[in-house]
Amino acid sequence: MSHWHYQLMYHKYEKPNAVDGEGYYAIHEYYEMDDGDGWTENPVDVTGCSIEDVKKALMLMLHDIDKHGVVDYERSEE
Fold first, then answer.
1. What is the three-class DSSP state of 33?
2. Would you list the DSSP string of 44-57?
């Protein structure tokens, strides 16, 4: 059985610089599966058919950030 949640992930730049810093945070879908965890390669967009849909998506994202914390994107790829 598998399920997913939103996961805040830290992406480190290959070549950090003074303007952008060391990296950035982005939200991904994170899938917990019996045969190993996985996540979306690209961060998710916040879209909806209504303002309420967008608000609900944002609330779910905030809830999952509080619940699951931050995962290092590079470390998760190993």
1. coil
2. PP---SSHHHHHHH
Largest CA distance in the chain: 44
CA separation, residue 58 to residues 24, 37, 42, 54 (Å): 19, 23, 17, 6
Decide: pTM greater than 0.90. Answer: no
Domain that holds residue 37: 3-77
Residue for token digits 């608000």? 55
Nearest of 51, 38, 48 to residue 7 by alpha carbon: 38
What proportion of the chain, given as a percentage, has pLDDT over 90? 68
Reading phi first (left if > 0) and then psi (alpha if -120 to 50, else beta), residue 12 is in beta
